[in-house]
Design the sequence.
């Protein structure tokens, strides 16, 4: 899991922060993105994984090849959660 004390990553590049962010829960990831908005441009892949991990109906559609690509996986997660 993401370290409890990690609230933002400052201006750390996504490629450096990604290994830490991959371990975060969605609520932690959202908090870090709010504090470090430059990550939003790159973190959609993390939200994609979270959507497929946490929502079985989306995972099934993905496995069937019928899941349309949303404009934002982050927004989709927020709507589903």
Sequence:
């Amino acid at each position: 899991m993401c370290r409890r004390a990690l609230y933002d990553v400052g201006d750390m590049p996504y490629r450096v922060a990604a290994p830490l962010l991959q371990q975060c829960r969605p609520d932690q990831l959202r908090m870090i993105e709010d504090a470090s908005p430059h990550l939003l441009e790159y973190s959609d892949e993390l939200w994609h994984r979270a959507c497929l991990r946490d929502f079985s109906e989306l995972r099934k559609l993905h496995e069937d090849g019928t899941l349309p690509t949303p404009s934002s996986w982050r927004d989709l997660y927020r709507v589903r959660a």
Q: What stands out?
A: The radius of gyration is 13 Å. The mean pLDDT is 91.
